[in-house]
Design brief:
By secondary structure, the chain is an alpha/beta fold. The protein has a single domain, classed as Amidase signature (AS) domain (Amidase signature (AS) enzymes), CATH 3.90.1300. It is built from 17 helices and eleven strands. An eleven-stranded mixed beta sheet has the order 1-3-2-4-6-5-10-11-9-7-8, sandwiched between helices. β2, α4 and β3 form a beta-alpha-beta unit. The radius of gyration is 21 Å and the shape is globular. It starts with 10 loop residues before the first helix and ends in a 13-residue tail after the last helix.
């Protein structure tokens, strides 16, 4: 198999070829740089392509192999990184004018672990500004496009990372997920997207949106590749106080375990959700039937407050955002409005000119929810509902091993479809938010296509730190269903 077929091979296969010298890291890197040059003018997945660094990284790996050194697990694997993860010496903008010229003097923990494992940095990917959005339309540097249909959005906020993987512009990518920002774009772009347990992966160097919800995770073409990446980025970090101290299991070893006998909970509220596309529902039910054919038992379960997640989220997340984004005042770093006559004017103008409309909207919502007269009515009540959502999950997991839902109520929508209706945009995350509220691991796996040839995603959720089980079920479904074997033709998808 040649490099032309790079999307068909996983990290394990590339590692084998690189170790044997059947392909060089430089060849693999050049292939992906050429792919970026060919399709990214249309897709716009990348904000910055670090071609020189990528070639230097690849050459170092090739030199180590030539010297007979043992290669680390991700040696020579070209990756893309969402542009809200700090990369030392490489611009990190969060797709905002506020940070347009910010070059971090330090490296995030997750990216440092990738480079230590030998991965090659191809560049930084586009996102909704400060990760606030579900379509990548709020980026200050223009939207990314869906490789399956460039007239449709790739989802968000990690739309650039999802589109880059789908378009073959990298082997895998990192994103962040606050309310569905990995899983929803993964669903729209027909790739695997994993949100780990809250605290499983360090947030050090991730530019904060909502600190109690944010989690870093991988995009890939297969569940096995997601397991490979999680293996590298998971684990305790003394620089992140919320990072769990639990040991990291062998995620790859869990993949091949059979799923017969496992109980799969069909979350009733998700299949009855208003706005659920009938084609999405049919594809996800067919995926459930596939798991049943593998020996799983399908169980009807109720999580009564599942659909309350979105209202709860849009109090808690903006509240945390308003606190986190207070640091952008035009004083220490970031955009500074020119010609201001006072500190107050400079701060006000810097924030008004540096932040886009959606970011400003969420800061205002959060500031309102935290204000003296409303903190009890809104923020504290939202935290109470969050506890109840978690209890619903706890009760569900007493009866089943894994939960199954659609990832998104619809397939990818057109540009501008919700631009005048923020509420309709927020509803795109209806089915993904509850896992964030409860801190649970969840994964998107492609499970079909609609009549327009757009991908449909299946969401699986497990209990805290049960990523091995989550990956096992997802992998076994993926192998059995072979969804991508019958995928429709799309010019930008290799």
């Amino acid at each position: 198999m040649g490099i032309a077929d790079s999307r068909e091979q996983g990290i394990a296969e590339w590692r084998q070829q690189l170790e044997k010298g059947e392909v060089s890291a430089r060849e693999l890197t050049e292939h992906h740089l050429a792919r970026i040059q060919a399709v990214d003018p249309t897709v716009h997945a990348y904000l910055e392509v670090t071609a020189e660094r990528a070639r230097a990284d690849a050459d170092r790996i090739d030199a180590r192999r030539a010297a007979g050194e043992a290669l680390p697990p991700l040696a020579g694997i070209p990756l893309a990184i969402k542009d809200n993860l700090c990369t030392k010496g490489v611009t990190t903008t969060c797709s905002s004018r506020m940070l347009e010229h910010f070059v971090p003097p330090y490296e995030s923990t997750v990216t440092d672990r990738l480079w230590q494992a030998g991965a090659v940095l191809l560049g930084k990917t586009n996102l909704d500004e400060f990760a606030m959005g579900s379509s990548t339309e709020t980026s200050a540097f223009g939207p990314s496009r869906n490789p399956w249909n460039p007239d449709r959005v790739p989802g968000g906020s990690s739309g650039g990372s999802a589109a880059a993987v789908a378009a073959g512009e990298c082997i895998a990518a990192l994103g962040s997920d606050t309310g569905g920002s990995i899983r929803q774009p993964a669903s729209f772009c027909g790739v695997v997207g994993l949100k780990p347990t809250y605290g499983r992966v360090s947030r050090y160097g991730l530019v904060a949106f909502a600190s109690s919800l944010d989690q870093v995770g991988p995009f890939s073409n297969s569940v096995a590749d997601a397991a490979e990446l999680l293996q590298i980025i998971a684990g305790a970090d003394p620089r992140d106080a919320t990072c769990l101290q639990a040991p990291v299991p062998d995620y790859v070893a869990a993949l091949d375990q059979p799923v017969a006998g496992l109980r799969v909970g069909m979350v009733r509220e998700c299949f009855e959700a208003e706005g659920l596309d009938p084609q999405v529902k049919a594809a996800v039910l067919a995926a459930a039937a596939q798991l049943e054919a593998l020996g799983c038992e399908l169980v009807d379960v109720s999580c009564p407050r599942f659909n309350d997640g979105i209202a709860t989220y849009y109090v808690i997340a903006p509240s945390e955002a308003s606190a986190n984004l207070a640091r952008y005042d035009g004083v220490k770093y970031g955009y500074r409005a020119p010609d201001a006559t006072s500190l107050a004017e400079m701060t006000a103008r810097s924030r008004a000119e540096g932040f886009g409309d959606e970011v400003q909207r969420r800061i205002l919502i959060g500031t309102y929810a935290l204000s003296a007269g409303y903190v009890d009515a809104y923020y504290k009540k939202a935290q109470q509902v969050r506890t109840l959502i978690r209890r619903d999950f706890d009760r569900a997991f007493e009866a089943v091993d894994v939960l199954l839902t659609p990832t998104s109520p619809t397939t990818a929508f057109g540009f501008g479809a919700h631009s005048d209706d923020p509420l309709a945009m927020y509803l795109a995350d209806l089915l993904t938010i509850p896992a964030n509220m409860a801190g649970l691991p969840a994964i998107n796996v492609p499970c079909g296509f609609d009549l327009e040839g757009l991908p449909i995603g299946l969401q699986l959720i497990t209990g805290v730190l049960e990523e091995p089980l989550l990956l096992q079920v997802a992998h076994q479904y993926e192998l059995a269903a072979q969804v991508m074997q019958a995928r429709p033709v799309a010019p930008l998808v290799p």
